[in-house]
């Protein structure tokens, strides 16, 4: 049996790969087996990856909202679009969690030309220029021309003093970050020139997927009890992480929805980041 990817390419169906992705939801072994068995009779040759995802998502949600939320991370990152403005905000939060002070969307004058830096992060003596490459396409890959271009940008801004967070300092390094995949040439180029790169599945043990799962840095767009308009409202008002909502439930006041639904949203958020679920709001 084959599965049709977003690009139209047909690839062999891999049951173990599907089962492994289901375990990432943190559902129990028995729950994963139940979901997997319920998917089996609905499979057919040529089923799309989207149909397969929606089947798994719905069945996981039947068990627990937070399972489906965790399973939907890749889509949730795409929901930080359409232009990627909120993806940059989310990346800022990712680096802030590592102890950096961050600011987004700043323009600096390099040796030759001006550069808009998506995220600037400082900690100690280091200052990072972070380039965010956001993609809406499920199977999008970042070609080698992107790290080549970014390397030249980093070179153009190094050796110049800039004042961020009231302290003059110079850029010490650059990071290329994407919610998509990297081509093999991109990886080879980046590794040869020691360019820091972070993608959905790169590097192998500290990629975006693993960092989010290990550190509970889920974007608020993961939450399955929010509709598209509600997600947009929260993002617009500065609620980027699920953690933001848990720490400040007052964000829910921006939503025109019933109290019982707000409670359900908060419970899902609490469960997703392994925080104690409140008895009352």
TrEMBL record:
Superkingdom assignment: Bacteria
Signal peptide extent: none
Metal-binding keyword on record: no
GO MF term list: endonuclease activity
Keyword rRNA processing listed: no
Xref: Pfam families: ATP-cone, Mrr_cat
ATP-cone domain location: 1-82
Cited InterPro entries: ATP-cone_dom, Restrct_endonuc-II-like, Restrct_endonuc_IV_Mrr, tRNA_endonuc-like_dom_sf
Keyword vocabulary terms for this entry: ATP-binding, Endonuclease, Hydrolase, Nuclease, Nucleotide-binding
The name this protein goes by in its record: Restriction endonuclease
Organism: Sphingobacterium chuzhouense
């Amino acid at each position: 049996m084959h599965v049709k990817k977003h690009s139209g390419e047909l690839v062999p169906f891999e049951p173990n790969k599907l089962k492994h992705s289901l375990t990432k939801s943190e559902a129990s072994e028995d729950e994963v087996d139940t979901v997997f068995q319920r998917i089996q009779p609905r499979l057919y040759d040529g089923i799309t990856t989207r149909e397969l995802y929606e089947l798994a998502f719905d069945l996981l949600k039947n068990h627990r909202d937070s399972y489906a939320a965790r399973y939907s991370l890749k889509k949730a990152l795409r929901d930080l679009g359409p232009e990627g403005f909120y993806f940059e905000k989310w990346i800022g939060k990712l680096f802030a969690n590592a102890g950096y002070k961050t600011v987004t969307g700043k323009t600096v004058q390099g040796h030759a030309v001006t550069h808009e830096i998506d995220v600037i992060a400082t900690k100690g003596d280091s200052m990072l220029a972070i380039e965010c490459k956001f993609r809406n396409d499920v199977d999008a890959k970042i070609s080698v021309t992107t790290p080549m271009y970014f390397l030249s940008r980093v070179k153009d801004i190094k050796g110049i003093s800039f004042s961020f967070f009231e302290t003059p300092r110079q850029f010490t390094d650059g990071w290329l970050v994407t919610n998509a995949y990297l081509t093999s040439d991109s990886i080879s180029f980046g590794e040869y020139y020691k360019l820091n790169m972070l993608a959905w599945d790169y590097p192998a043990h500290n990629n975006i997927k693993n960092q989010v799962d290990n550190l509970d840095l889920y974007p608020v767009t993961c939450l399955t009890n929010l509709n598209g308009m509600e997600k947009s409202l929260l993002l617009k008002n500065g609620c980027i992480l699920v953690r933001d909502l848990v720490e400040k439930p007052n964000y829910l006041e921006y939503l025109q929805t019933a109290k019982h639904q707000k409670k359900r949203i908060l419970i899902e958020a609490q469960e997703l980041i392994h925080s104690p679920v409140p008895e009352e709001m």
